[in-house]
Every structure is written in structure tokens, then in C-alpha cells.
Request: fold
Amino acid sequence: MSITAPEWTTPPGVLGQLTANAPVAINVHASGLVKYMLRGGDLPAGLSLTDYGVVTGTPCQPGEFDFIICACNGMSRTSRNFSLVVQ
Reply:
């Protein structure tokens, strides 16, 4: 039995235009049973990424933030570039 790398169903790029000091929950998704991890860049202050692929929290500073999320299934992984804009 071979395990293939997860395939992203969330397209790369801007995940959303957010408002500072307003709570958010944004889902990212890849195929299979995966764990999500931040692999590079920075989320806006006040946000975090759950193991289940939810960017959640309350962003507290404006700006554009670029980051990489990795989807891992224990045998293989795949990464994707995303960004968020906080106004």
C-alpha cells in the first residue's frame, strides 16, 4: 500500500481581506487525513493555525502577511503559499 502526498483543494494566494481587531476563522484544506503546520513566513499577530487547518484568532495589526502552510499525512507532505491582508 502506498501513501501519496496530500493534494491541496484550497487554491494558493490571498485567503482573505481581514479587518484589524475583528475575529476570524479561515479554513484551508488538503486531501486525506493531514496535520497542518506553518512552515515559513508569519501569520498576522493575534492569529494562529490549528492542526486541523483553521487560521483563527483576532488580527491586531494592519499589513500584508505571506506564509507557507504544510499539509502532512505522516508519510509525505506538501506545502502551499498563502497570504492575508489586514486593514
